[in-house]
Structures are given as structure tokens and as C-alpha cells.
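Lab notebook, bench 4. Still working through the backlog of constructs that have no structural model yet. Next entry is a single chain of 278 residues. Request: give me the C-alpha cells for it.
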Amino acid sequence: MSAGTRLLGEVIAWACPGVSVTHSDLVRALEDAGLDPGVARELAPRHAFSRACKRLSEQRIIRPVAEDAATVKFQFTQESREGDRYEYRLETTLTLDKQTGAVTCELPGLATVAQEELDRCISARTGSDVTKVVQKLFERQADLFPIRPSGGTYFVPQRHAAFIDKTQDLLNRVGGRLLRFPVPAGTAEGDRSVTQAVADGLAAVVAEHRAAVAQFGSDTRGDTLERAAEKIRTTKFKLTAYSEYLAGERDRLDRAVADAERVLRDKVAEIAGEPAVV
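Model written out:
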């Protein structure tokens, strides 16, 4: 590719095979890469315990049985095989404090093992966690347009090149890697593929707006409705920001967003008991 070639953006993919990094090291890597360390906040104990259960579930079944604002209770059921059948015996009930991560149950030995495993899962970050951090960063600062239905490989517009540099720096620091393939402007297939990826990505976002609005009812909070309206406004802004990529797809997407706005207005009117505006 010659110097001065105009780029539409990059196709990127990242991988974090075997990555294991402490929470503090991940925060430091984010800071050193010039990225927001807040996205690496502690895993909620509720979710970390689900991971810990994978190691605790040998020869037992673990199921949540009750939950309130402060705690979650899990039932531990012992599984054993007698001849040609399995037998199940209630072992204990374990309570997890969702705020502090403290574990209590009637079996002190099991409580100790569970607490140790939970603490390990809270403090450690896996490749999957790092991927979630990267995705969260993109949600806040850039856009990923999938170039295949199953995801994993994305087109990113050129305006976000500096952010991709920082993301690559982060992944290098934690043992992951980022693959980057520049997409030059002016090739028939390249231009067409970028238009399709961006248009399909924005169309999927509009479809998500409509699906969310369809679930709203009389018990939907006002702030939920306002967030929905803000998301639609953000999508309208993106249509303008990425208009150079959309070619003939722009009119179709403008109509789809306008229709999503209308559906939201009608839903708000319905909830308020007002006649819909035709």
C-alpha cells in the first residue's frame, strides 16, 4: 500500500489465549495504555461465585435457590451413583453476601474452600474477562461492525485509529494480541464490503431498539423510556457520522430509525393513556 493512500478503516480481531492477569495488573495496564481503568472494576461476587462453582461442583450439584438485595443462597446437593441409578442428598445451603463476597454455611470446611475459590476468582482476570473489557471500551469510545455473523472479526472506521493503537498496547501488556488489516478506499470489493458491514451493524442496532420498545409496558420506568430515546438519538448521530460508508443504504436506515422513534412515541403515549399521534 503506497504512502498517502486513504484508508476507510481497519479489520481487526483479537485473541487472549491462556491470559491470566490480576485485577491490579489489568488496572495498571489500562492506565499505561491511556485507557479508562474503571472498566476493570471488581467482578461482582455473584458472578465470580458462578465461576468458582465450576471447581466446587465435583460430585455435587450447585443451584441458586433464593436471592434478595443483599444475599444469594445456593443449595449444595451431593450426587452419588448406586448401581444403575444416581442418588441425591442435600449437603448444605451456602449464603453469599453480594456486596462483600463473604461466604457462610453450616459446614466450616466447605465454607473455607468456597471462600478461597471465590477470592481467587474475584482477583484473577482471564482472557474472557479481558475480551469483555475490550468490548466495553469500544462501546464507550468507538464502534465495532461485525464482518461475519458469528462475530470475532470487525471493521472499525479510520477515525478510531488512535483508539485501536491504545487497545493494541493494552493487549500486548496483558499477554493478548490484536491483528489489524488496513482497508484502503477505492477498491470495488473493499468499498462494497465496508458499506455492507456498517449498514448491517447499524440496522442490527435499530432492530435492538425496536425489540426493546416492544417489551415496554405500564410498569416501565420513565428513566428507562428516556434511555431508549437517547439510544435512538445516538444511532441517528452515527448515521450522520458514518454516512461516507453507507452509500445507498443511508436512506433505508434513516427511515428505519425514524420508524423506531415513532414506535417509541406511540408506546409512551400508550403507557400514559394518551391517543397516539398519527
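Notes after review: The radius of gyration is 24 Å. The mean pLDDT is 90. Flag for follow-up if needed.
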